[in-house]
Design a protein that fits this description.
By secondary structure, the protein is of the alpha+beta class. The protein is built from three helices and six strands, in the order ααββββββα. The protein has one domain. The protein has a four-stranded mixed β-sheet with strand order 1-2-5-4. 16% of the residues are buried.
Length: 119
């Protein structure tokens, strides 16, 4: 049920790369936690096809504001993975363009805020 509800609140282009983990509500703020998918397709381009791509921890989460629901702010916390070639030392990660430059909001919510003159 929670995953189905998350699909209503999280843009599809984010769910292509991230999986729902859990959500929390604190002081009227909802945070939906998402983790980058762990599959060969999400291995970063610089090392894709150059050997076995393995996990190397996580980056700091990216927090994006999205449309509110039921009068509560909703944030998406995107936990990106670090990757490396097996036996290698250098880490790589994927860059995503989920938010307009200079904003910490989803593309759609950022466009909405600009349209109503809130930014």
């Amino acid at each position: 049920m929670e995953k189905s509800l998350a699909k209503l609140l999280v843009p599809e282009y984010i769910l292509e790369h991230f999986e729902y983990d859990h959500w929390e509500e604190v002081s009227g703020v909802i945070r939906i936690h998402l983790i980058e998918k762990n599959d060969p397709e999400h291995c970063p381009e610089p090392i894709k096809g150059k050997g076995e791509c393995v996990l190397d921890g996580f980056m700091n989460p990216l927090e994006l504001l999205t449309f509110p629901t039921q009068g509560k702010e909703v944030f998406l916390l995107l936990k990106r993975r670090r990757w490396k070639l097996k036996g290698g030392k250098q880490s790589y990660y994927n860059n995503y363009s989920f938010n307009p430059k200079g904003m910490k909001a989803t593309k759609e919510f950022g466009a909405f805020l600009k349209e109503i003159g809130r930014v």
